Records
---
Amino acid sequence: MAVNNPPTAVTPPRDTAAIALRERAAEYLVRRHRFRWPEALPWIACIAVFFLFPDRLTFGSQVLVMVLFALSLDLILGYAGIVTLGHAAFFGLGAYTVGLGAAKLGWTEPVSGLFAAFFVASLGGFLSGYFLLRYRGLTLLMLTLATAIMLQEAGNLRSDLTGGYDGVPGLVFDPLLGRFEYDLYGHTNYIYALVVLAVVFFFVRRIVYSPFGQALTGIRENVRRMHAIGSPVHWRLVTVYTIAAGIAGIAGALFTQTNAYVTLTVFEFENSAKVMVMLILGGTGRLYGAFLGAAVYMIMEDYFSKLSPTFWQFGIGLLLVLAVLFARRGVLGVFEQVGDYFAKKKGTKS
């Protein structure tokens, strides 16, 4: 007697292709999380600077501060597509949180000051981002710029508290972790800034390669499609704006602690424009573009200002024009193109 076996389900070709695509996408996301050896190069360079240029570490610590500041901007500009001209507002909030805490409240412990700066700047980012990020384009640019200007003028209005444009000089902070004294050449400050940068960087890296980071990239590429699939676009933008503001606040706090003074110039438009130029030079949406851009800008600024104290900005402007015309993906993009060229050349030979 024949036994009728139940028919086996045949997976349609389309379903098989969809499963294969999902598996490839998952494998790609997992692979992106892994560290690659070129990622060690910026950190090796930072450590090498400590030993090769021991008398230039004060300048080196300022470069690291600007790398951290540029990294915070890259998180919102390079990955979420939020264009802002007022990012210095959060840098200034962090700088004055630490400065006024030390001058008025006697709060001179440096590490806890960073946490306080992160909280205050994040709060400022959340409150402003909740309202401003409902707008796009030129309107958003003007509103963010106005926010920084209003904070600067509010500080000038309360010059009895902030010191106005004379600032709050002569700040004194406790030894780092209660043990490491600050020296004339900035050895302690350099290590301090480098450790903070490393911690924040790997935190940002986890965000970028997480599903939340992928959603930010989707918003940057096609915000209407993200709305169509039900993504909470506004709240995701507010979240990343808040995080980036907090990181900028940490950079501002480090600036105050390593320089032992703070003035209202931290809120100026020039500060916002400078960090954007750094990011354009290095390359947006690449994380390590902040390293290259800040280092190139600060070194060129130092060189041109010594070469011509009056017209040094001409050199920076020329450098930016050349980058926009011939290296639209930034300095890091040039290295990527060279690497791709040699990889293809090697592949054709094999």
---
Amino acid sequence: MMSFFSSFKPARFVSIAALMVVAGCGMRFDSRAPWRDELEAKCLSSGAVQTSAYIEPAPRIDGPGACGMQQPFKVAAFAGGTVGLTSRATMSCSAVSSVDRWVREVVEPAAQLYYGERVEAMTVGSYSCRNQDSKWLATISEHAFGNAVDVMGFRFANGRKMSVVDGWRGSTADQAFLREITVNACDYFTTVLAPGSDSYHANHLHLDLMRHDSSYQRHVCQPKLNFARRIKPNATASQIAGLNYKPTLADGAAVAVADNTTTSSGLFVSVPMPTARPFDPKIAAALPPEPETDDDGDFKGVY
């Protein structure tokens, strides 16, 4: 019988090792699905995202492999420039639109409801050319298309800071605020993963617009939260910029929201929208320099 050593071929071993090194260096050989560029083009033509002092177009990102987008946006703030980011996020058109509406219609009202304060800034992670959970053998992440955002923490107008990892099991108000914005996020995004979903998402909220089925009908929201939300769902929350469809409710197998989604008086709380505030140039001035890598520079997120 031929032994391992007699059958060993150094050239073959070197070739395999070289491929592993290339993969380890982040080289990709996959290609971007055509529907991604089509959706992005529709979003851009819809006018859902307008450039401004805090949302600026960036050069096209094309590769390696499937990574990238036709027209990235560098985002310094959401909600009309009133909710700043601690570092610029690189996002696709549809993601900018959905995150902005979620911040304006859910996050800001929830802060008023539970704290009587407005949100002044958020810490997020965005574009990163990698696989889900940063695993070598895994499906490519929505972050690789600027189609996802990871929310790690908030700063409020009174100066208080709260991280998702601390607030999730923190004070009663912090727990309620985070669960309110998470449960409502399931209307705005097709994927919502919060602490408790798995070990990779123990310290942040992952929000993305992954196409789980061809018609965007299926939503995945984890963990299952039996929480009675107090902010009424917006009828247009699930509309993704560039698409013309009527989404169903979140997949019942993936998310559980309390049936009694009302207050003790039987009515949703009416939370007035915060007064629009002019964009503060100091927000942009305080941001760190642009990173020289293909990542947003402040978070090596997952999924």
